[in-house]
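Exercise 7. Given the encoded structure of a 239-residue chain, write a plausible sequence.
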């Protein structure tokens, strides 16, 4: 990985590993940025590591803002959640929704770490290991999310949350998250987690409200919405 990063000019390597492998990585210059208990098969902790190839990649210009956002979210832990207004319908998305989904993702995210702007990608992952969910109003999707399931490790990343600008402020994220938790539990997965934008108060509040625990911050980690951003790790055990 280090050889690849040096040859291509990458400035950060990101790794998710079982805790019992950490010594080897630390000896090679990796640092622990976040941790999730029982991440692998409900037994072994998962560590989120970083190896910085340049000093500048470690510097967070918006660190103070990220700290404020996290503090706001932590104070909203397990707050009551209002019911979804009856004029909205929450459902699982299918192949017939792919075209509409890509339009929403293109509008919400100028850049994204995975090709959710591409119809083929959504269709392929939908058939393999990702369940997509949406909220619609009068037959039109206005918000989306997904549960990316790792059945081998028995965990699921709750991700790809997107709400069209005109529909923000309705608390859709909490309702999508609640539905996804119920579905992954039905499929035998008990450890949901997320890697949420540290710059987004709303997204972090959403996970805090649902009882997720803060696991750490990944500095300058992800190319999203047109720039490299730091991300917060949140996790939960679904009983």
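Solution.
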């Amino acid at each position: 990985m280090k050889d690849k990063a040096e040859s291509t000019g990458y400035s950060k390597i990101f790794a998710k590993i079982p805790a019992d492998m950490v010594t080897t990585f630390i000896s090679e210059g990796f640092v622990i940025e976040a941790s999730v208990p029982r991440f692998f098969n409900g037994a072994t902790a998962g560590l989120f590591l970083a190896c910085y190839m340049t000093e500048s990649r470690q510097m967070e210009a918006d660190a103070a803002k990220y700290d404020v956002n996290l503090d706001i979210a932590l104070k909203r832990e397990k707050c009551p959640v209002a019911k979804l207004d009856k004029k909205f319908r929450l459902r699982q998305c299918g192949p017939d929704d792919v075209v509409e989904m890509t339009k929403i993702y293109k509008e919400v995210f100028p850049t994204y770490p995975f090709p959710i702007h591409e119809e083929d990608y959504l269709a392929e992952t939908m058939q393999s290991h990702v369940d997509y969910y949406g909220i619609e109003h009068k037959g039109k999707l206005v918000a989306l999310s997904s549960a990316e399931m790792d059945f081998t490790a028995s965990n699921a990343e709750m991700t790809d949350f997107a709400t069209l600008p005109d529909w923000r402020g309705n608390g859709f994220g909490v309702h999508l998250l609640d539905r996804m938790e119920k579905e992954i539990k039905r499929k035998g997965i008990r450890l949901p987690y997320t890697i949420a934008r540290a710059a987004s108060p709303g997204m972090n509040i959403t996970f805090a409200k649902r009882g997720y625990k803060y696991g750490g911050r990944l500095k300058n980690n992800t190319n999203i919405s047109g720039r490299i951003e730091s991300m917060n790790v949140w996790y939960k055990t679904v009983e």
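Remark. The chain has seven helices and ten strands. Students should compare their own answers with the one above.
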